[in-house]
Amino acid sequence: MEIVFLGSGGGRFITITQMRSTGGFFLKSSKNIYVDPGPGALVRSWRYKIDPRKLDAIFVSHRHVDHCNDTEVMVEGMTIGVTKKRGILIASKSVVEGDETHTPAISKYHLDSLEEIYVVKPGDKIKLGEDEMSITPSVHSDPTTIGFRLKTKEGYISYIPDTEYFKELKEIHEGSRVIIASVTRPKDMKIPYHLTVEDVVYMLKDMKEKPELFIMSHVGMKMHFANPYKEAQFIQNVTGVKTIVAKEGLRVRITENEITLKTLRPIRNV
Ligand SMILES: [Zn+2]
Q1: How far is ligand 1, taken at its centre, from the CA of residue 32, in Å?
Q2: How far is the centre of ligand 1, averaged over its atoms, from the C-alpha of 22 (Å)?
Q3: Fewest Cβ atoms closer than 10 Å to its Cβ: which of 30, 81, 151, 257?
Q4: Cβ partners under 8 Å of residue 66, min gap 6
Q5: How far is the CA of 140 from the centre of ligand 1 (A)?
Q6: For residue 150, with 0-12 CB atoms within 10 Å meaning exposed, 13-18 middle and 19 or more buried, which class applies?
Q7: Separation of 173 CA from ligand 1 center, angstroms?
Q8: CATH 3.90.79.10 fits 2-263, yes or no
Q9: Ligand 1: distance of its center to the CA of 130 in Å?
């Protein structure tokens, strides 16, 4: 299986300046799954020859614009321009229904074009070809935010989107080979509802079965200027877990025996 990142940025200020792109990531396993299509997801996908018409499913963790902005346009891709009823949407309640302060992130027109819609909560399980996705909890300002743990034939892959640290996080994601997490803040700069570098150290240190690779994504402005690569090195030194920072075009290939990294070359549109 493989994962291609279409961005590594998150938070308001990185998003509006695009100092890091905010397209989320693409996961190719027994199904083609797009995860958190933030602003630029469609444009960045084509840069790496990821064709949205070949998607089988879209996962949207919550109704914040840096995670869900391109949901409708990616659904248009998946449904071949709304000409075919196809594809699966797996999303938080807030994405599909909206909440007190947000309209839904997807119109009825787009919802009607989908084959299956799962408005999920922690503990739910969804079969995706030969893989199984377990929905995991988050503690975030959007209280319906969800993450996942995907069981594949190459092992477990975890996605921890925006969340504050909570005790169960470690237990839920223990034993995953790869963990991708929104680590918004560097050391000594905690804010509510987001993970900091200390939280990650605490989580990984405590895991008996540690991941082979930890990927920091959703780099916020404070992290961007604090030097995320140094922060990643710190996590790696203290926990012994190989830690990297996501970037646009990074491909992570996972086989039974090894995990390899490559930076793909973008193609530019004229
Ligand atoms: Zn958020």
Answers
A1: 24
A2: 12
A3: 257
A4: 9, 10, 11, 12, 14, 15, 22, 38, 39, 218
A5: 7
A6: buried
A7: 20
A8: no
A9: 30
CA–centroid distance, 67 to ligand 1, in Å, is 7
Report the C-alpha dihedral over residues 207, 210, 216, 217, rounded to 10 degrees.
-90
Residue whose structure tokens are 């998946």: 78
Between the CA of 235 and the centroid of ligand 1 the distance, in Å, is 23
- Per-residue pLDDT of 1-23, as tens digits, reads 999 999 999 999 999 999 999 99
CA–centroid distance, residue 162 to ligand 1 (Å): 5
Ordered DSSP codes for 61-118: --S-HHHHTTHHHHHHHHTTTTTS---EEEE-HHHHH--SS---SS-HHHHHT-SEEE
| Cα 63 to Cα 69: distance, rounded to the nearest angstrom | 9
161 Cα: distance to centroid of ligand 1 (angstroms): 8
What pLDDT shows up at residue 190? 84
Q: How many CA atoms lie within 13 A of 59 on its CB side?
A: 28
pLDDT for res 269: 73
At residue 270, the pLDDT reads 65
CA of 244 to the centre of ligand 1 (A): 21
Tell me which residues of the chain have a pLDDT lower than 70: 270
Dist. CA 63 → ligand 1 center (Å): 7
Q: For 130-186, what is each residue's pLDDT tens digit? A: 999 999 999 999 999 999 999 999 999 999 999 999 999 999 999 999 999 999 999
Q: Residue type for 20, please?
A: R
The count of other CB atoms within 10 Å of the CB of residue 244 is 19
How many Å lie between the centroid of ligand 1 and the Cα of residue 84? Answer: 31
Residue extents of the structural domains in the chain: 2-263
Neighbours of 100 (CB within 10 A): 5
